Amino acid sequence: MNTTYQTLIVKFSEPIPALDGIFDDTGAWGTDTLKGWIDDYESTRFTATDSHTAVITSESTIWNV
For residues 10 and 53, is the Cβ–Cβ distance under 8 A? Predict the structure, then answer.
């Protein structure tokens, strides 16, 4: 079985911890962080590499780039 991964490198204009503030309603979002929201997608992982940059890797297609 071959597994194909897609990788997206994202540079945010705001620090990632500031973006976590979007998720202030945990009941509505199901999480309290951007990482938690993205990691909830099956086979998808969010890895911050610095305060403004993250690598998102997924086995499934979750974006059209």
Answer: yes
Report yes or no on whether pTM surpasses 0.90: no
Going by the DSSP 8-state scheme, the letter that residue 65 receives in this structure is: -
Q: How far apart are CA 22 and CA 17, in angstroms?
A: 10
Contacts of 8 (CB under 8 A, 6+ apart): 55, 56, 57, 63, 65
With the C-alpha atoms ordered 50, 12, 19, 15, is the resulting torsion angle positive or negative?
Answer: positive
Q: Which of 52, 41, 44, 32 is nearest to 5 (CA)?
A: 44
Amino acid at 44: T
User: CA end-to-end span of the chain, whole Å?
Assistant: 25
Distance of CA 50 to the CA centre of its chain: 14
- 33-42, 44-53, 55-64: which has the minimum mean pLDDT? 55-64
